[in-house]
Amino acid sequence: MFFCVIIKLGDSMKIFKRILLFILFASIVAAGIYVYLNKDRWMNEKKLSEVLSEDKVKSIKENDDTELALSLVSSDSFESSNIDRYIKYSKDTNLDNDKVIKLVNNNIDKLDDFIYDDIILSLLDEEYYLYKNTNRYMNYYKEHKDLKASAIITNVNSNIDYAFYTHTHKTDLSKGNLILVNKFNYLDEDYVPDLVDIDSEYGDWGSLTPDAYEAFKVMVAGAKEDGIKLFSCSPYRSYELQSSLYHRYGARDGYDKADTYSARPGSSEHQTGLAIDINAADDWFNDTVEAKWLADNAYKYGFILRYPKGKEYLTGYQYESWHYRYVGKEVAKYIFDHDITFEEYYAFFIDK
Ligand SMILES: [Zn+2]
Predict the structure, then answer these.
(1) Which residues are catalytic?
(2) Quick one: 195 and 174 in the same domain?
(3) What is the pTM assigned to this prediction?
(4) Are 104 and 220 within one domain?
(5) By C-alpha distance, which of 97, 98, 100, 93 is closest to 115?
(6) How many domains does the chain have?
(7) Separation of 277 CA from ligand 1 center, angstroms?
């Protein structure tokens, strides 16, 4: 009997030990699951307390925004100085946190009357996106929903959401060799640049700015080495000369037609002294070896083909294989390599 009790006690101890072991094991597993489920939250709480002041964390808690703040802080793009704007924009729009952070980081929440649309996110990713144009992109997009984000950016940066010769401004002369003259940016009637006369070896008449002339001479020499003969056909033109040309064309072809190939006085690049028509200002020049050489090589000397084929809607001019504009080698190479117009380059890099 005594022996039996000892055996039974021994069994009970075993069972007790097993139960203890099981409880221990279950506790470890439960603790593990608890840690696993809460580790992100703890990390976010830690991060929040690290990036925000104590007072800010307290005020977020008082406003019942802790959960929202914790979910925002986990983003890699989270910027602590924007926390109040994230929270407000998130509540105003009910967008995903990633979208909220991206839009606020790009100051979209600061725009007046801005209505969110998914297109804005793709616009922000575009290489030539400009914040100052955001409302114009959106308005343009509403009228052109078939266009890709890149086209919306290009077109608006080039002002073609406006009609030509509207929203005109006196151009910024401080830009030197990079001044922009087109159907939105004009020169005063009395603007005359520094000019040097072109030697008869390089053309029959006229003048260019010293920089443009020097570059042109080097280009002529470079072309000559390739067996190509270049000369100036029409360089600097005064306001008065452009005026008489434009009105002559207008009287002959009608002003709507004249506007496609001739600038209104004050809006001609030729008045800058930085533009030059080379060899011939006529469509027959398009298929010549000289035109081909220029298209392939002019950028090496600092000149750009100013009115390229297929970009008429951006430049406001028909393709002109003969009209080159001096902008300097670095800018010319960028424009050539990226196949953009001077309008696009100017909007993004110069007119900041
Ligand atoms: Zn020209």
Answers:
(1) 320
(2) yes
(3) 0.81
(4) no
(5) 93
(6) 3
(7) 5
